[in-house]
Amino acid sequence: MSHPLVTQLHFARSEFVRCLKGVSAEDAGKRIEPFNCISWIIGHLAVHENVSWVELAQDVIIHGDLIDLVGYGKPASTPHLDEMWSAWEAITSAADTYLDSLTPEILQTYFDIEGNRHSENIGTMLLRNIYHYWFHLGEGHAVRQMLGHKDLPVFVGDMSNMYYIPEQK
Question: Which pLDDT tens digit goes with each residue over 147-162?
């Protein structure tokens, strides 16, 4: 059974996908400043998971080229939607290999980066990842509204399978 925070990340991901369902490649590449385009948002969240849960956690590099395209602080870009979804799916699948192994004890540990302890423990990194999804989910939803999309999700989705479960030690 996954740690409750990992379950929350999975839910945030599913809401992200639900929010962006049906967006065309053309609309996903439109940038309405100061917002990022939707395809950039997808790739950007993939980068976050890639760096945290694939590269740092597993010492594996997949889609290492994404950081230059959609990484924090990089120039705005409008990558292709299908490529970003493909990268996101591959990265989140690889990330789950590590995330599904997390325990309360591991969440209190730190990654080592070139001999230095990361400034946040793994649990805090996981919380940051969850909140990052909600931040950009809102941005993607706003972009869709500005593009005139109709029948958008209006609230957090179905939580019938998301019961609160106390953390197990």
Answer: 999 988 876 777 677 6
